Amino acid sequence: MVIVMKPQATQEDITGVEKLLERLNLGVHISEGSERTIIGVIGDKRQLAETPLELMPGVQRIVHIVEPYKLAGRAFHPKNTKIQVGNEIIGGNKVLVMAGPCAVESEEQLMSTARFLKTQGATFLRGGAFKPRSSPYSFQGLEEDGLKILAEAREETGLLIISEAVSTRSLELAAKYVDIIQIGARNMQNFSLLQEVGRLKLPVMLKRGLSATIEEWLNAAEYIMSEGNYNIILCERGIRTFETYTRNTLDLSSIPAAKELSHLPVFADPSHGTGRWELVTPMSRAAIAAGADGITVEVHPNPKEALSDGPQSLNFDNFTELMIDIRRIASILGREM
Fold first, then answer.
1. Mean confidence (pLDDT) of the chain
2. Three-state DSSP class for 126?
3. How many CB atoms lie within 10 A of CB 282?
4. Are strands 59-63 and 2-5 parallel, antiparallel or unpaired?
């Protein structure tokens, strides 16, 4: 349910409605626009059955929402959410680039990559310290040692850090080092982990699950937001279809769809979305043209020797070409880089 206040509603009117809802043990989310205030109501609305909200001072109308994702939907929050991380704004006019290796393998590997990415204009360094792999015998990551190396790279280069948490234990460790927590596709519906991330309050990138619908994806964001963390970045990273030429099918239509249904920033991951390095640059161009707020791509000094995801990783020359291309696309769209 959404309570739309009149344009001339006073702060006293808004506070009166808020206090009434809180007395009924209902959650309250207030969105202040330039013309009017919208109050979102979260919880069991049956308690309002005999409460004439429409007659309260300053109330214009009541709107009932049928979508299960209340906080993530535009009815509660019509304006686009902008998330500040360090000096960067995610969800604004600037197209942001998160880049780095699939996994932190060594200090030399990560530092050389971070130094290079800084020269090319990337703003975030990505790297996995905890790697949930399909095979238990594959490289599983350096864990806290990997996080420490990421922190060293941030100290030297100024790049902000994003890394994945795969469990509540890894979440506690990652939170000590990173600027953004990543929730990977395999954990999109790990609801206990989502709730823990919601209580943490750190910005979080939520990747779409391998077989998740857009509604399920937004419901996963709702789990995080229901715990009080509204700093969520959605990331389309490809879904599983019958196609076998690519690792996944990058659903570019989900980018404008998610931006229409939700106020949250939306990124694209063409590395996991295709699984083939030669497709990463063209799909990055397409994602930005479709309205993505940024991209996250895998970059490695020597992809042939990468311990994970080498076939989808760009080398330094490939990444240089990618940045040239997406700057052109951003310029055509009137966006910054």
1. 93
2. strand
3. 13
4. antiparallel
315, with CB counted inside 10 A (0-12, 13-18, 19+), is middle
Q: Is the four-CA dihedral 288, 290, 292, 296 of positive or negative sign?
A: negative
Torsions phi, psi for 9 (to 5 deg) = -60, 140
Q: How far apart are alpha carbons 311 and 300 in whole angstroms?
A: 10
Query: Where is 138: in which H helix or E strand?
Result: none
Question: What's domain 2-63's architecture?
Answer: 2-Layer Sandwich (3.30)
**Strand pairing of 96-100 and 2-5?**
unpaired
At 204, phi and psi to the nearest 5?
A: -135, 135
Cβ-contact 245, 218 below 8 angstroms: no
φ/ψ of residue 73, rounded to 5: -85, 165
- Cα–Cα distance between 9 and 17 in angstroms, integer? 11
* Burial class of residue 284 (count of CB atoms within 10 Å of its CB; 0-12, 13-18, 19+): buried
Mean pLDDT of 99-117: 97
Tell me what pLDDT residue 278 has.
98
Please report which confidence band the pLDDT of residue 41 belongs to, taking 50, 70 and 90 as the band edges: confident
Q: Are 210 and 239 in contact (CB under 8 A)?
A: yes
pLDDT tens digit sequence for 223-251:
999 999 999 999 999 999 999 999 999 99
Tokens of 4: 């739309």
Classify burial at 76, counting beta carbons within 10 Å of its beta carbon; exposed 0-12, middle 13-18, buried 19 or more. buried
Query: With a threshold of 0.85, does the pTM exceed it?
Result: yes
For 56, left (φ over 0), alpha (ψ -120 to 50), or beta?
beta
Instruction: Look at residue 222 in the predicted model and tell me its pLDDT.
Output: 95
- Residue ranges covered by each domain of the chain: 2-63, 83-332
Classified as helix, coil or strand, 233 is strand
Does the domain at 83-332 match CATH 3.20.20.70? Answer given as: yes
